[in-house]
Amino acid sequence: NGQMIVVCPGGGYGIVSSFNEGAYVADWCVKQGISVCVVKYRLPDGHWTVPLTDVQNAFRYCRAHAEEWGIRQIGVMGFSAGGHLAASASTLFVDDVTRPDFSILIYPVITMDLALTHRGTHDSLIGKERKWLDKNLTVNEYEKSKAEYDALMEHYSLEKQVTEKTPATMLLLSADDKTVPPENSFMYYDSLKANGVQAQMYVFPYGGHGWGFTTVEFGGDRLGAYRPVFFQAIKAWM
To answer: Distance between CA 121 and CA 215 in Å, rounded?
Structure first.
C-alpha cells in the first residue's frame, strides 16, 4: 500500500525478541499490504550508539530503494527497549533520510530516570550506575565519569529530546505493566503534545508487558479481547 515499517524488537538491549516482536509483526504487516523491515540490531555492550546506528542505516537502505519498491512512507515501530530505540530514531535522527515518517511505540522504555526506567535496559545501554559513580576513583576521575554519565542519562531520556520535528506518534501499552512503568509512555505523550506533535495513546486494562504480536495463532494472547482493538487502532491510525 506504499507504507513501510522499520521494526525494532525489544529485549532490554540484552537480546532481540525477533519472533514475538519481529517475525510475527512482519507476518501481520504483510497481510495488511504494509512492507516491513525487521532490524536485528547489534546490542550495545558498552557501545551505546550502536543500536541506533543500525536502525538509521536500515532507514538509509530502505529509503534508497523506496522508489524501486513503491514505498512512499517509512515509519518505525518498537517494543519495550526496542520502543526506546524507535523513540531514539524519532528524536535523535540526523537528517530527513533517518527521520521516521511516523512512530508506533508499544509498551516503550522512554526515560533513563532510575525511579521509572526498566533497570535492565538502562544497565545494558549505558551501564550500571555504580560503574560510573565508583567511589574508589580519584576526585578528578569521579567528576569526569559522573559528568559523562549525567550527559548520557539526559541524552537517552527521550521525553527530554522531543521537538516539533518529532514524527506523529502512537503509543500502546497495558495499565498493569509491572516491567516498564506506564509513566514512560505518559511522559512521552505529554512531551509530544507540549511540542505540538500529533499523538495518540491506547492504554489497555490488562496484558502486562511483552505481549507483542503473539496471538492465539502463535500459541496464546495475553491481550485477549483487546487484540482486535489493538490491530484496528494501528490500521485506522496509519
So the answer is: 25
Return the pLDDT at 136: 85
Looking at per-residue pLDDT, the higher value among 142 and 169 belongs to 169
Phi, psi (rounded to 5 degrees) for 188: -70, -45
DSSP per-residue string spanning the chain: --EEEEEE--STTTS--TIIIIIHHHHHHHHTT-EEEE--PPP-TT-TTHHHHHHHHHHHHHHHTHHHHT--EEEEEEETHHHHHHHHHHHS--STTTS-S-EEEES------TTTS-HHHHHHHH--HHHHS-TTS-HHHHHHHHHHHHHHHHHT-GGGT--TTSPPEEEEEETT-SSS-THHHHHHHHHHHHTT--EEEEEESS--S--TT--GGGT--TTGGGHHHHHHHHHHH-
- pTM of the predicted model as reported, rounded to 2 decimal places: 0.96
- Residue 46 reports pLDDT greater than 90: no
